[in-house]
Amino acid sequence: MKGLFNLKKANLLLRSLIFLMMTSQYSFAQTIWQGQHHSYRIILSGNMNSYQTDSLNVSIPELDINKKVVTEIKADSLFFKNEMYGFSFKGKYNQEKTAISGIFNYYSIPNAAVVLKKEKEIQPLYFAQHPKKPYPYQVIDMTFLGKSTKLTYGATLTIPQDKKKYPLAILISGTGQHDRNYTYMGREFFTVLADELARKGIASLRVDDRGIGKTSGDFKNATTGDFADDVDAQIAYLISDKNIDASHIGLIGHSEGGMIASIVSARNKNVKFMVSLSGVAVSGLEMLNLQNTAILKNYGFSDKVVNKQMEMYNIMFKAVYDTKASDSVTPVLQLKLDQWIKTQDSTTLKEIHMWGGREKDFIYRYGKDAERKWYRYTIHYNPQDYLPKIEIPVLAVNGDKDIQVPAQENLESFKKYLKSTDVTTKIYPDLNHMYQHCITCKQSESKEIEEVFAPEVLHDISKWILSRYKK
Fold it and tell me: In the chain, N or C: fewer CB atoms in 10 Å?
């Protein structure tokens, strides 16, 4: 009986070993194949054994898609599809079986040439301009307390290698809540800028906005003025840290960040230079008029529709401007819109999409924005309150295809109000608001452009800063 027991035990052990070998094989078969088309990652994951292909999954994180697929694997080719969601892929393995090259099809990603590469884990979106390790400069992630704001700031300090003296730029992002890298559609605008600056001998500090990353605070109820206070707190920290050369601090602000840079440069004597990238230099009311007119024209609306639409918009903007910050503006907007609609014919209202209940949607959406403290603050922004007080060197640039902050009017305003004798302005051809070379230059095109930051602008920024830096 003892011998029989041992034999059974041995058989059981052998079966267990075989099972473990099989499951181990299956676990090794669990793979991730990842590709990218513009701003979209395409990720195939699961068990690649041909007899278990029903376990494969495709995700497109940027479109919130994560679905099972029907897959066929034959020799050196692979095909998968999901009929319900309308996407498919057909490709071939390379000789080393480390990549699959093929064509991916989806409604918003038609006939896309994609290479799926074998990865150990899911990778973030990547663009060629993103710097790769090892970096030829120091990168220090940190947190610090803003004494004046009582907020904790999460930041990255980038310092040129083996330098004790250097100019230092604080990078200030535009409208919306952003991480320290100023990431938009996977593109890290400030990471690329910091890389360029450091390679040229210029340090930089990039900081998470309020309420994101490692920065505390309430972003929702903050204004542009509060963000300017954040920059003052960041300057104070840099000056207090004896390990940092803060003798030549400057500000580089993009879009609303340019407005913030103007506010801080007008009042903080520790700022030695300012760079405005598509910064706002006109009044809040004028900015809304310029911006919305440019966007409507960019979408191809006729002059008649644009003029009539802007007639209505400007009535709304003025209503917000005239309403006290402590009062609700939505009832005023409703009254003004009702009065204006009564003076218009039905054909006009249909052309500008203010018909059949859409006027109610407009009031709801616009009223929601207009009630915000941030909106009330920015609509009352007046460059004359700040620009004449700036006495430091200023570089102000724009792309000529910028429809968010139109170039001509804003740069003319900088030149009009700045009293500094050292003011440089430049308009770059064929660049959009995010400093990408564009074709249609619509806002939606940004996600299709591989470029993160036009090299000629990066070059000019660093060259200009260094020309104003005296050791």
Answer: N
DSSP one-letter code for 431: B
CA dihedral 220, 221, 224, 226 (to 10 degrees): -120
CA distance 158 to 197: 9
Query: What are the distances in angstroms from CA 463 to CA 160, 301, 454?
Result: 15, 40, 15
Give, as one character, the DSSP assignment of residue 437: B
In angstroms, the CA 428 to CA 321 distance is 33
SS (H, E, C) 56-90: CEEEEHHHCEEEECEEEEECCEEEEEECCCCEEEE
Length of the chain: 471
- C-alpha to C-alpha distance for 93 and 98, rounded to whole angstroms: 7
Residues 332 and 319: their CA atoms lie apart, in Å, by 7
- Longest Cα–Cα distance of the chain, Å, equals 104
Tell me the CB-side half-sphere exposure of residue 430, using CA atoms within 13 A. 7
| Torsion angle in degrees (nearest 10) through CA of 291, 295, 301, 303 | 20
Query: What is the mean pLDDT for each group of 10 consecutive residues in the chain (471 residues)?
Result: 41 42 39 93 83 77 91 88 92 93 93 94 94 96 98 98 96 98 96 98 98 98 98 98 97 98 98 98 97 94 95 97 96 96 94 90 95 97 98 98 97 94 96 96 90 98 95 68
Nearest to 278 by CA among 381, 427, 437: 427
* pTM confidence score: 0.89
In angstroms, the CA 113 to CA 131 distance is 24
Cα-atom radius of gyration of the chain, to the nearest Å? 28
Q: Residue 263: enclosing H or E segment and its boundaries?
A: helix 256-267
DSSP state of 388: G
